[in-house]
Amino acid sequence: MLKKHYKFSIYAFAIVLFVSGVFTQSCIAKDDAYTTFIQANQFYKSTNYSKAILLYNKAVSLGFTPGGLYYNLGNAYYRNGNLGKAIVSYLKAQQLLPRDGDVLENLNIARGQTVDKVGSSEPPAALRQFLFLYYNFSLDELLWITSFLIALLFISLSVYTFFPYSLIKSIFKVTAVILIIIGSAAGAKFYHVSSHSIAVVVAKQAIVRAGPGASYAEMFVVHNGTEIKILEKKDGSAKIRVDKKKGWIDINDVDII
Amino acid sequence: MRKHLKYILLTALLFSAGVHAQVKVLASINKRVISMNENVNFQVTIEGSQNTSTPRFEKLRGFSVLQGPSTSSQMSFVNGRQSKSITYSYILQPTSIGRQTIGPVSVRVGSQNYRTKSIQVEVVKGNKRKSASNISGTIPKDKIFLNLQTDKSTAYVNGQISLALTLYYKDTDITDVTQPDFNLKGFFVYADGNRPVQQRVMIDNMIYQSVRFQKLLIPLKSGRQIIGPFSINVTIRIPVSGRRRDSFDDNFFGGSIFGNFFGNYKTKVVTIKSNPITVDIKNIPQQGKPENYTGAVGKFSLNASVSPTTVQVGEPVTLTVELSGQGNIDNASVALPTNNTNFRIYEPETTRDTRVSEGQLVGKRTYKQAMVPTSINADTISAINFSYFDIDSGKYVNLRKGPFKLKVKPAPNAGKIKITEFAPVRSNHGSIRILNQDIFPIKTGVDSLGETKPVTRNPVFYTLITVPTTMWVFLAIFAKRRNRMLNDTALYRRTNASRLMKMRLKKAHDALKSNKSKEFYSELSDALTHFIADKIHVPAQQVTALTLSKLLAGRNVSESTIEETKGILEYCDFGRFAPGEFSKEKAVKKYKESEKLIARIDKEVT
């Protein structure tokens, strides 16, 4: 038994080492990214939007990706007149800050200025309310809650192994039920985020064709800022659906979220 | 029996009484003005005699006999004078509108013929809504009967006939009524969702309960068609507690079958049959049939509209045609414009809705047709025509809407389909007028940014998941082991054998050091015997030099090991019970041997 405890502490030590290592590493990157972010904000305030965009994107590439950064980036794109990119950034910000009113407001303003008026991709309010876990929480938040619940579940299980009190059993049961609910919401959200099925037209206008490639007939034209759904990707083209119409679009004309 | 007696008595009286007393023959009717869907009760009463023939209608125009004759006779003695009468009742159904004459009716009393006066009845076009509930005053005074009625006696093929099958009952305890089977040849029975209607009705000053089943029939074949008779099964509850039962029960249930039962009630299923009805189904006339006639019979109205009326070439125009009315709309179809050089015409979107309302089949058929002008010459959409056969007037009617004028402008950029036009973001009909619209400013504080790092890059997230999980796995394994030990003594002893053996050997070693010979022998012996006992799960007392080979037999321990163990045990026993000189050297040697031996046993024993 003693031997096992010894082994366990070795593992624990290794984990602690790994964790602290990652921490220090990320702290350095964070500082760097944060400075970039502050600089970008200053450029934004001095109305040098293209420089601000450059620096915000640099911060993103450094792994500094809070929702607020995407929001600022969206603002910079909006001021710079690139509606499509602005909507992309706002949508990314919304994924991270789903309850932020500023993000939603600016997204709606940007959407209102697009050329194509397609049906809103926003879900109905009733559905939003019913699936509030899915819509009102970001993936990160849901994953955090899930991880806490998993921890609570296994701690209560461990305690119950040695102290089989009914109170602990009820804690375990309640935790399990909440975990199933929140876990499914997290799973659905994860699927949605990782499927990358939403895209925004970033070209001034893009031709939608009957098939992948320039040889196919032109069907219709979508304009900067139109949100589309990606159905499949093939040979540098993407099959899309927009407002119940389907077609193929050059993948360079869109930004996938 | 009582009833039979009544008849015998009656017959006797008839023959005994003078036939040629004062004879009066009277015709009467309960209503002078009726609607087409009502019936009248016509009665012929013969006073002064009951020995009469069945009355004969000399003239009956505009009516058909729905039911009858049913007879009832009265007899009374007043101040020694005998008076008797017989009444023949008919239910007559009007067949045409207008002033109609019933009678005169002739009847033969004894050897003489009598005639009644004729009766004038005004038949008016009825309010069809009340067709079925207006059956009144005509039903024989039975306790339970089934009446079949139609709203008309003549109809056209593809027209409609409303059918009402009504069960009347009084003073009867009915617990269940089956749905009648309206399977009719030559008719399409319209399956509406109407449930039977239950109500109380007054018939000849008596209150009846009624259950009315209504169906709508669409005649499919011409000619004289007989509807019915229909029958339904009625479950009746009869009290069986007393001996006394009224004649009704006797009639239905044949007396004493339900004599003395313990229960208070008994149920019985009775089949009740209705009257049949004959209807004349006419073919719609061929004469004057329009070319575009598609078979609609009834009364319809047509509406058509085009919107928008000002378009560009390539933009769709919607032609909406709405046909509604009374009748079988399934047979009605409207001819819509077909493809031509000026329009590209798409398959119309049609909706159809038929239902039974107030006993009539009503329906609505809507066509929505998209038409795209292909040139600026497309300025007219031709008129929409629809013909139907009007039942009320008996003539064909043509409905026409249009033609529709269009203003077509040339398209500025023909060819490309635009998704939608630019529209302002927010409408300004709220209470706040939006003067200007701008985005909210950027976020500068680090707190307002939200999580700076995704959870998937945060070690705390993984720690939260992995550490408690791993902890639980270890704890669970440990708990399981501990439980097994607690429940399985053999395992417990086997697992702890080496630890205990080592303790005993240590004691023996200590005893050897301090020259305590007796203790040494006993500890060494105990170490061996307890070790073997623990390993093979037997009481330690059983393990001796004598029993050893028996205990270890079949446990894969080699002979030499057993013999050597025996040797050590014997050496210990000898030393303990026959103390002589204690040779420390020999003891050390035996001790070392024992250690090796135990290791061998540990390996070999199974």
CATH class of the largest domain in chain B: Mainly Beta
* Backbone CA Rg of chain B: 55 Å
Overall geometry of chain A = globular
Might you state the CATH topology name of the largest domain in chain A? Answer: Serine Threonine Protein Phosphatase 5, Tetratricopeptide repeat
CATH class of the largest domain in chain A: Mainly Alpha
Please state the CA-atom Rg of chain A, rounded to the nearest Å: 23 Å
Widest sheet: strand ordering of chain A: 6-5-4-1-7
Compressed to H and E, one letter per element, the order of chain A equals HHHHHHHHHEEEEEEE
How many domains make up the coordinates of chain B?
A: 4
Structural class of chain B: alpha+beta
- Count, helices of chain A: 9
Q: Outline of this structure?
A:
Chain A has 257 residues and is of the alpha+beta class. Helices cover 63% and strands 15% of the residues of chain A. The longest helix of chain A has 44 residues.
Can you tell me about this structure?
The complex is a heterodimer of chains A (257) and B (606). Chain A has 257 residues and is of the alpha+beta class. Chain A folds into three domains: 2-119, Serine Threonine Protein Phosphatase 5, Tetratricopeptide repeat (Alpha Horseshoe); 132-195; 198-256, SH3 type barrels. In chain A, 63% of the residues lie in helices and 15% in strands. In chain A, a hairpin with an 8-residue loop joins strand 2 and strand 3 (218-223). Chain B is of the alpha+beta class. In chain B, the strands form nine sheets. In chain B, strands 22, 24, 25, 26, 27, 29 and 30 form a seven-stranded mixed β-sheet that branches. In chain B, strands 11, 13, 15, 16 and 17 form a five-stranded antiparallel β-sheet that branches. Residues 12-20, 128-141, 242-262 and 414-431 of chain B have low confidence and may be disordered.
